[in-house]
Amino acid sequence: MSYIMVDVEADGPIPGDYSMISFGSVVVEPSLSKKFYAQLKPISEKWIPEALQISGFTREETLTFEEPQAVMEKFLLWIEAESSGRAFFISDNNGFDWQFINWYFHHFCGKNPFGYTSSNLGSLYKGLVKDTFVNFKHLRKTEHTHNALDDACGNAEALLHLKEDFGLKISLK
């Protein structure tokens, strides 16, 4: 099984009504060399300026991004090529990130290669240290910039830290 860390930037709170603007993913392994990044053209006329501003893009810029159908097809092929066995979705905020990736995969590809499950990195860390009032974000090496690939890499670094220094039993193939 391959853990694939994913981060999503969007122009609103839910898929369908709003659009996934960019996402980054990385196979969680020591080299962090298997990466995927995409910018997607909006699928909706609706967008929230404050939500879009977080990503650092303007609405005009997003209208020049790649068609979502082509992006999701490329991402599906990348997952199939880069994962060893089943691909497992993990993110910093899987309640947000998962809903967009899942919706886009089902809408544009008819299936989600991650299946029906995901994990939350923050919850994993809280359980590991037995404290629901802490967060893992200090374990990142890569700065959290709201560039989806940077953020996915930083979160993958944190997961590797949990394995190496906290003794998390996880198979990273």
Automatic annotation (TrEMBL):
Gene3D superfamilies registered for this protein in UniProt: Ribonuclease H-like superfamily/Ribonuclease H
UniProt domain Exonuclease: residue ranges: 2-168
Output the superkingdom of the source species.
Answer: Bacteria
The cross-references to Pfam families, in alphabetical order and at most eight, read: RNase_T (PF00929)
Q: Name one GO molecular function term.
A: nucleic acid binding
Kindly give the SMART domains that the UniProt entry links to this protein: EXOIII
- Family matches, as InterPro entries: Ribonucl_H (IPR013520), RNaseH-like_sf (IPR012337), RNaseH_sf (IPR036397)
Keyword annotations of the record: Exonuclease, Hydrolase, Nuclease
Stated name of the protein: Exonuclease
Q: Which organism is it from?
A: Stenomitos frigidus ULC18
